[in-house]
Amino acid sequence: MTGGRVVAAPAPGARVLDCAGADIAPGAVCAHTHLYSGLARYGMPAPVPTPTNFLEILGRVWWRLDRALDQESLRASARDAVARALLAGTTTLVDHHESPAFIEGSLAVLAGACEELGVRALLCYGATERNFGVEEARRGLAECVRAPPSARLRRLVGLHASFTVSDETLREAGRLARELSTVVHVHVAEDLADVDDARARGTRGPLERMLALDALPRGSILAHGVQMNEEEVALANAAGLWFVQNPRSNEGNRVGYPRALRHGTRVALGTDGWEADMEVEEAVLFRLAAAEGDDRAAGRLAAGHALVAENFGAAPEPLSVGAVGDVVVREQGRVRHVVVDGRVVVENGRLVAADMGAIADASRREASRLWQRMSAIH
Ligand SMILES: [Zn+2]
Fold it and tell me: What's the CA angle centered on 114, arms 219 and 91, to 5 degrees?
């Protein structure tokens, strides 16, 4: 590799990694996640009373967690999630971030964790009006502009979802994405609540609403699409949009299986905040797809590579000349080395830039502080 890309012949003096008896594969892509939920694994208290539907899960768990985040807890969360992704052989994370009490500077914290540990990432702040109104959305969009791009980082324009933003914010997100030559990353039709809201506003659904307001430049990323029909997926295909399926999250939130995505031409795989081990996520996808009679699930991971190549201007075929220099070396199925953008970030099963044990210790400390802050939010 040279300049972070795969080349036909190594430059003189290039470092050589021992890969004897191992398999070399492209690094996996997690096409939708939330680094802010990285501390949830450290004993997040169960909500009381137990949520009975999707909106209650958001309101009692994730929208309380995101409001409790501050700079230090976010940093610990991101480092933990990035470290686990790399150790599992995932080399790109497409993140969707929200921390309403710490908006300005939040993407710099995420970028810092990504650069330190060495993952490739696409970052955005998910603008919303659900806590403090249109001014909150304006600040969220402004934070997307501040995200520091680099060889390994791209900034996207984020929206939480159609049902928590006004027409004005949707229009502004599309305009801003075009100005920055980037795309929009948004949750779409994860649950019927999003569809019902768009219909109450006089549109046929959230996708039609956002397209009508010019909010989705070609290449924009739609997470979920559970409550979509074949006609809407065809509309997204024609508009050059990406879908991201998140099987564990959809099953856990009991929102259903995205049956219409089998008609999608560009559908990648995400974890929606679960640990970014894409082999585990794909195994759940295959189990659910088999139960649903969905025979199109096999191409999801490959689609993630195409999404990354498109956003980084690289050759689309992984491991070919001009492709991103993101590879995983496995020995008997276990991750031995991970290289991202030509930089060795995991060597002999251990992170190069930090120690996983120390990261987990910091996570435990920040998590107990975070649960306290969260308990004060209702
Ligand atoms: Zn999500």
Answer: 60
